[in-house]
Here is the input.
Amino acid sequence: MQIDVIETSSLGDRSYLVTAQGTAVVIDPQRDIDRVERLAADRGAQIALVLETHLHNDYVTGGLELARTTGAEYVVPAGDTVSYERVPAADGDVLTAGPLRLRVLHTPGHTHHHVSYVLADSGGAVQAVFTGGSLLYGATGRTDLLGDAHTSALTHAQYHSVRRLAAELPAGTPVFPTHGFGSFCSATPTSGTSSTIGEQARVNPALTQDEQTFVDELIAGLGAYPAYYAHMGPTNAAGPAPVDLSVPRTIEPAELARRLAAGEWVVDLRNRTAFAAGHLPGALSFELSTNFLTYLGWLYDWGAPLTLLGESVEQITEARRELVRIGIDRLAGAATGTPAELSAGGALESYPVSDFPGLAAALAAGPVTVLDARRDDERASGGVRGSLHVPVHELLSRLAEVPDGEVWVYCGSGYRASIAASLLARAGRRPVLVDGGYADPETGAAAVGLHAEPVST
Here is the structure.
């Protein structure tokens, strides 16, 4: 028996392939199922079961298409209403695939009908548990994704679900969650990349705190989550369309100029400092790196025409793979090349890049407008003295709060600040990108004397 982990770091999620004696089971697959199919082929295994722990709120599932493509049975929690044929997974059910046995445990909390799957061998010995958004490494799945009216009840349910897992499974059972590696589906930050039931019994708040303390602290710690989550559950319940990973049609410079002039979403995938050094007027900076999908999905005007600009076809293809994972399927097109090549003879724009020492020097020289683009939970521990706080995911609706003229913009690393800077540039402000780690011990805000503790009220 072998358990392979399929990482999707851009979403902070994991899928799993379990193989034994030529038979495979897949748990919580992402939309780009070719990764799963290649891995199963490498293992010499035929996929017999595709399992969902819940209807996902942070990505579009590949489970339905994978099951249809491979002829596997598609297993979805029994309580969820879906518009396609599936095998309903109810508490106590036992699913079999070759020598593999998977017992279904109802573990509500992340959603009402969430289940976990306990993997056993043909002799009945427990080998692992797949916990989805229930028991995570040092945390649990968040409980507010179905609306405020359900949060309290789901949080209490989450507590009991985790305790059930700990009570019914051997201490040495390896735990394989779907969320918790940077996913906003985690209620609080997770720690580690592997764990067991016994280890979680020592460190997980649901297993070390009393129920009311757990509930109160979890709810109090819930922060903002990406706006695109609102589209994921309905898409997964309706049944996602087959995935399309083809290269978008090529957009010529003249048409690109018209789209920019019309204010359409034209996203530049290059490194953020390269963007700052020269870009097409009106383009937006979403560097193609780990945070690309989260923040483009968060800010994007859902359904609006979206054009990608990249340095190569490979970069465009990678971005398209990321986007289909959250259901952004219909791209208006793409263009590759340098900004000068794509400008159709027009002038490029640029803005300065600095760091926290540079910001400190600017503040020492005179008044400077400073924008903090971090989330509320980050701002709660303080920020640059005198800075205006507008989280990047709120900036489009709050641009009027940002003064005209020069604006120095920072975040925790420079990534979100670069998005904010491009939004400010498109709106006619003159941004300066503070590209650096806020908490860097040598060059961060505190190291150069800029950090101020929050004012208590």
